User: Fold this.
Amino acid sequence: MRAVQYRTPGAAPEVVTVPDPEPGPGQILLKVAAAGVCHSDIAVMSLPADHLGFPLPLTLGHEGAGTVAAVGAGVEGVEIGAMMAVYGPWGCGRCRMCTRGAENYCLRAAELGIFPPGLGAPGAMAEYLIIDDARHLVPMGELDPVQNVSLTDAGLTPYHAITLSLPKLVPGSTTVVIGAGGLGHVAIQLLRAMTATRVIALDVSEDRLDLARRVGAHDTVLSDASAAEKIRALTDGEGAQVVLDFVGAPATTATAAAAAGIAADITVVGLGGGTVAVGFGSPPYETTVRSPYWGTRTELIEVLEIARRGEVSVHVETFTLDEAPLAYERLHAGQITGRAVIVPDA
Ligand code: NAD
Ligand code: ZN
Ligand code: ZN
Assistant:
């Protein structure tokens, strides 16, 4: 089969032919219908080889959806032909976190050498994908896989971040979304679907700010050194109750800290290497700073349910498998609006 692989440290991903995978005991073979292109892949491909933590080549793609093509020995209750979304943050399934559904925080994954597909295990940017266990599949039902595959990360990650702050997202509150890209433009829709908060979106690109307004942001602000001041002006000097930073660069974490009000939540989702220093009085009193990773299995079920109600819709640009390297190039150059999705059959 054909697959998109990161093969050489520092080099662009390549489309190659690899052996067709076969499901072993307990495994499921998916025929991939769609695979999303996440900015984290670019972060991974920017790491020095000795920081990767897994060997190359790596088939990319940690947002995946597809139909069940075959099941290995002992797999029951998984119907051949059913359309499934892949729950990506694979864990051991048995530890304290995994048994709560929070496999994103598996206590034993590192020790056991368990990696998410596309981030250590072979990923979804291929014609077929091996799923290690049936619990890592969530039925999509009637949801279109191309339109909704990115909910497995670009939906699940913001959903998890938002749920952590729900008590603060009351009417009259303000939430700042920094970075209206793949994750950010879904975050805006989830905030509108789940809460009564007012949403102020920040980005460096006018196209993204336009998308942010179209998907429900009440206000948009160009992300520069004066952004925090503008947010204060828009909130009568109070600042925001919640800041979700989907860039996480030093410039945006600085904006996040400066835009936060008293008892705010600052949530750094982006991998941009920025930090928020916490000391007495700064950021404002009683502010919480956190950096979540992905989300739980239960939350993926919930995000797909929101999509089924038509309350979230990913802005998708499609590419073929052969065009996947181009999709990464465009994402790196800031030329994707919404999410790039690879469609192997296209
Ligand atoms: P993306 O490229 O689709 O979106 C990033 C957006 O940020 C773009 O619209 C870009 O114009 C904007 N941007 C860039 N610099 C900015 C700045 N200084 N101020 C405001 N906006 C700026 O990326 P994505 O796939 O949505 O991923 C977003 C980030 O989240 C990445 O760092 C990614 O690695 C990370 N991520 C984290 C998790 C997690 O579990 N913590 C999960 C998925 C992705
Ligand atoms: Zn991702
Ligand atoms: Zn575990």
Notes: The chain has ten helices and 16 strands. The pocket of zinc ion (ligand 2) is lined by residues 38, 40, 62, 153 (CB under 6 Å). The first strand starts at residue 2 and ends at 6.
